[in-house]
Amino acid sequence: MKLTAATEKDIPLIRNLAKRSWESAYTGIISQEQIDYMLEKMYSEEEILSQLQNPDYHYYLIFDEGNSSFEGFIGYENNYEVGTTKLHRIYLVPESKGKGFGKETLNFLKDRVSESGDERIILNVNKENSAKKFYESQGYRVYDEVVLDIGDNYFMDDYLMEYVFHK
After folding, report:
1. In this structure, how many other beta carbons lie within 10 angstroms of the beta carbon of residue 160?
2. Fewest CB within 10 angstroms: 58, 74, 89, 167, which?
3. What is the pLDDT of residues 78-134, one digit of tens each?
4. Is 38 in contact with 46 (CB distance < 8 Å)?
5. Domains, the chain
6. DSSP letters of 90-150?
7. Where would I find the N-acetyltransferase domain in this sequence (predicted)?
8. pLDDT digits (tens, 9 = 90+) for 73-86
9. What's the rounded Cα separation, in Å, for the pair 75 and 143?
């Protein structure tokens, strides 16, 4: 597995990987209408371009060297809060789950965050998403809960999780 920094030319690939992974991750948790709404809102070309232009926001593509294929991506933002990086997104296409890519990608993130000087990583995970168990297995813990109004009468019912670096 190799992680490569995404650029503007990768926006169509990120959008495609998001759609493929979201269909798998959220079907049965939220409605198809909400999936479509969130994909369009969070993964529009304009939204991704704006994030790529933010010097604190980083996108990396997850490349499977064995299959010569892109399997997912990670997006995170250093200095989201004082001393804190926010993991905004980490998604893998369904056929790549269980191959260790998620764990390797989170280790990559920990290394980058440690280099940045931030001392904590935070993320949101839907309360019905089985990824919560995965994050817990990687040292993350729930520190709060939130219901977010994301517009158009859609809501996300999430756990707030964190990983704290011990110095």
Report:
1. 14
2. 167
3. 999 999 999 999 999 999 988 999 999 999 999 999 999 999 999 999 999 999 999
4. no
5. 2-124 (3.40.630.30)
6. EEE-GGGTTSSHHHHHHHHHHHHHHHHT--EEEEEEETT-THHHHHHHTT-EEEEEEEEEE
7. 1-161
8. 999 999 999 999 99
9. 21
